[in-house]
Amino acid sequence: MIISHQHRFIFIKTVKTAGTSIEVYLSPHCAPGDILTPIQPPHQGHLPRNFGQFYNHFSAWGVRQAVPARIWDSYYKFCVERNPWDKTVSDFCMLRHRSKGALTFDAYLAKQQFCRSWELYTDSDNRTLLVDQVIRYENLNQELGELFPGLGIPWNGSLDVYAKSGYREDRKPYQEWYSDLQRDLIANVFSDEIREFGYEF
Fold first, then answer.
1. Are the beta carbons of 91 and 15 closer than 8 angstroms?
2. Residue 123: which domain range?
3. Which of 13, 127, 190, 193 is the most exposed place for a label (fewest CB within 10 A)?
4. What is the pLDDT of residues 10-23, one digit of tens each?
5. In what order do the strands lie in the sheet with 35-36?
6. Would you give the end-to-end CA distance of the chain in angstroms?
7. Domain containing 136 — which CATH number?
8. 76-81 and 35-36 beta bridge pairing
C-alpha cells in the first residue's frame, strides 16, 4: 500500500494483480515523507518508509479511517482487479510452487481459500467502491500509462518489474484448468467482481 503526499495518490494493493511490481516501480518516485508498506519477500528498489500502523494489503476502508478527511477526499485512490478465473489459477500456481509441487488444483479449490480483493477496495457494506479507479489487470500497461502521467509519475510504456512472477509454468489458457463445476464455483465466489466489472469465463 502506498500513500504519496508528493503525488497525492493512494494505492490500495490487491491480491495477484501485479501489486508488488507496481509498488517497486513507484517506490523511487515517492518522496521520503510518503508512506510505503513493506513487501515480502523484500525486493531491490523498493524502500518501505513511514508505514507505522499500515501494512501490505491494508484496505481502503481502513485507510479512510486512519487518515485525515482532507487527504482521503483530495487524493486519487486506485487499485487493480483481475479476471477471477485467471487470478485463481495464478494464485494456485504460486502456492503449488511453494509446496514444491505437492498441491493439486483440485485440493486448492477444495480448501476454498480464494484470493479475493473485493473487501480491500469497497466500503463496510461490501457493495460501494471506495476507490476512484479500478484498473483492469488485463489492460495494465495501457491504463497505468493513462494514469501515471496525470499523477506526475514518469512512464515509458511498461512497469519493467516482474516481482512474484514466474510461478505459472503451464501457460495453457485458464479456461482449460476448470471443469464445469469448478468454473461455476469461481463464478459464485467472485460474483461481486463479475457483476461489477463484467468478467466472463
1. yes
2. 2-197
3. 127
4. 999 999 999 999 99
5. 35-36, 2-4, 9-11, 76-81, 133-136
6. 29
7. 3.40.50
8. unpaired
